[in-house]
Design goal:
35% helix, two-stranded antiparallel ribbon, Wheat Germ Agglutinin (Isolectin 2), domain 1, single chain
Length: 74
């Protein structure tokens, strides 16, 4: 019986020592959500897309694709 008590005490002491000496887990800061983007509408198909993905014509009009820019005559 004393043997089981000794094993239990040693196990608890080991677990406490291990918890104290464990390296802290550093996942870093949480990733920030993406910033909102300006959305523009294609005048040919009316689809909305981010301004950075749109194709500009010579007059500044923005289109969703080169095909729609061509269809509009630019």
């Amino acid at each position: 019986m004393k043997f089981l008590l000794l094993i239990g005490i040693l196990a608890v002491a080991y677990l406490l020592w291990r918890a104290k000496h464990r390296a802290p887990r550093d996942d870093g800061p949480a990733a920030a959500p993406p910033l909102p983007q300006d959305m523009v509408r294609c005048p040919v198909c009316s689809v909305h897309l981010p301004r950075g993905d749109a194709l500009a014509a010579s007059d500044g009009q923005l289109y969703c694709s080169a095909e729609h820019r061509r269809i509009a005559g630019h």
